[in-house]
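Saturday, quiet lab. Running sequence design on the structure tokens for the scaffold JK sent over.
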């Protein structure tokens, strides 16, 4: 809200001029209410691994039901490490997809045959469903905490690009984009998968804000007794310290016990922890991109945009290059 010495910014219908008036009840004047949403300084829009340590203790994590919770350091650091995939990098405020690797519940091994990951999802747009028994719209308890707050979950999905996710909805494969397109069989709601990570003005911490709004209100990630939801009250926002994620996960994993990290960037592939090892990179069509022995533990190699296969020693992973 803009106010100047308790006067009001108004539009004169006769002269089409903006004027200040001491009362909004003047004939020929239209009151303009200007609201400015103040966004903090964003985290640099660079894809990276990170963990989120809550200011009051614990880390953002994922439980066995793929629900977002706060937990202490778990049985594996992978539960606490997330891949931040920058999106809308040219926007005034960049946003991020937040994901972690998918595990096979039976074998507890990392799936590497495709790029499916668990993406952080604010389930507000899935909260309501039609109940045939009562012939009415009711809340879906799968997406609601006992407190009636909407859950934050991690939904299995494949990131096609910064504008599209492939996932499964009601047992059927679905494409999710920013806007719904019934003719193309595309669902809307991509903004419920995207987040701003913004600097707190009063500390060195960050807070996470949903790109999607609810009833035109800004929503902030909140810790509610150890489970995560969103609130429209900024004073309730969860403050987190970002820590460098120590993970074996790139866009895909090499091995759970490996210390090598492969990360796709903007026209590059970065290989960490593989000094002295041979690295080969080929495109999906088999065209060689690189074949060299790395001289350092943090090597960056130029690569074309798209999916490439990176082989370090005897292990091959699939990596997306922007």
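Result came back. Writing it out in full:
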């Amino acid at each position: 809200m803009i106010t100047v010495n308790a006067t009001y910014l108004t539009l004169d219908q006769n002269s089409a001029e903006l004027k200040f008036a001491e009362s909004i009840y003047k004939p020929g004047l239209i009151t303009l209410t200007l609201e400015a949403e103040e966004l903090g300084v964003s985290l640099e829009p660079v894809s990276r691994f990170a963990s989120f340590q809550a200011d009051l203790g614990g880390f953002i994590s994922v439980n066995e039901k793929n629900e977002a919770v706060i937990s202490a350091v778990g049985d594996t650091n992978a539960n606490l490490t997330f891949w931040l995939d920058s999106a809308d990098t040219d926007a005034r405020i960049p946003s991020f997809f937040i994901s972690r690797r998918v595990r096979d519940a039976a074998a507890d091994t990392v799936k590497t045959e495709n790029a499916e990951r668990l993406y952080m999802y604010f389930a507000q747009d899935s909260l309501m469903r039609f109940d045939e028994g009562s012939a009415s719209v009711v809340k879906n308890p799968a997406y609601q905490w006992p407190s009636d707050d909407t859950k934050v979950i991690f939904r299995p999905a494949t990131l096609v690009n910064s504008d599209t996710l492939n996932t499964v909805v009601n047992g059927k494969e679905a494409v999710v984009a920013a806007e719904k397109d019934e003719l193309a069989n595309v669902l809307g709601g991509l903004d419920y998968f995207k987040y701003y990570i913004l600097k707190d003005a009063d500390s060195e911490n960050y807070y996470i804000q949903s790109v999607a709004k609810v009833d035109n209100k800004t929503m902030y990630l909140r810790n509610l007794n150890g489970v995560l939801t969103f609130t429209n009250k900024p004073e309730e926002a969860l403050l987190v310290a970002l820590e460098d994620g120590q993970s074996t996960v790139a866009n895909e994993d090499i091995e759970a016990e490996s210390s090598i990290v492969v990360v796709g960037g903007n026209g590059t592939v970065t290989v960490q922890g593989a000094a002295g090892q041979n690295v080969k990179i080929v495109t999906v069509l088999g065209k060689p991109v690189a074949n060299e022995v790395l001289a350092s533990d943090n090597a960056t190699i130029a690569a074309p945009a798209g999916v490439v296969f990176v082989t370090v020693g005897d292990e091959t992973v699939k990596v997306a290059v922007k």
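Notes for JK: The longest strand covers residues 152-161. The chain has a mean pLDDT of 78. Ask whether to fix the surface positions before the next round.
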